[in-house]
Write a structure and sequence with these properties.
Structural class: mainly alpha
Low-confidence stretches: none
Shape: elongated
Strand content: under 5%
Helix content: over 70%
Distance between the termini: 18 Å
Order of helices and strands: HHHHH
Number of helices: 5
Number of strands: 0
Length: about 130
């Protein structure tokens, strides 16, 4: 697969991961729900795995686009989005369920909207070049 084809695929993967997080957190009403029992902790674990996937994909997109594509969408704090992956991966026992919950509630919808715009832009650009 060419590098140009990989970027839209990565964006689709990010969108899927966001949708998984939203689905898995549908019944989480407060961050304390993550800590209440084993089911809540399992839900937190599975959500954190998707945040890792998102961060990895964003880093790969930056690499493939020479740090240019994400910069075209300054509404998102890309550094923080990629950094969340690092925190979860390297400091797993320090994960703050409240931070994860707030991220889901306040940052994820905007990220989903932006990633969808990026996909549409790249698809339109691809069709224009044909």
């Amino acid at each position: 697969m060419s590098e140009q084809a990989l970027v839209p695929e990565l964006l689709h993967n990010i969108r899927w991961a966001i949708e998984q997080i939203q689905h898995r957190s549908k019944y989480v009403e407060t961050y304390e729900d993550f800590l209440a029992d084993d089911k809540g902790r399992e839900r937190l674990d599975s959500i954190c795995m998707q945040f890792i996937n998102i961060g990895e994909a964003l880093k790969k997109i930056d690499q493939l686009t020479s740090n240019e594509l994400l910069q075209q969408y300054p509404d998102i704090d890309w550094r923080a989005a990629k950094g969340m992956r690092d925190v979860i991966t390297h400091h797993y026992f320090d994960i703050d369920a409240e931070v994860v919950y707030r991220t889901i509630q306040h940052q994820l919808p905007k990220l989903l909207e932006t990633v969808s715009k990026m996909i549409a832009y790249l698809e339109a650009k691809s069709h224009d070049s044909k």
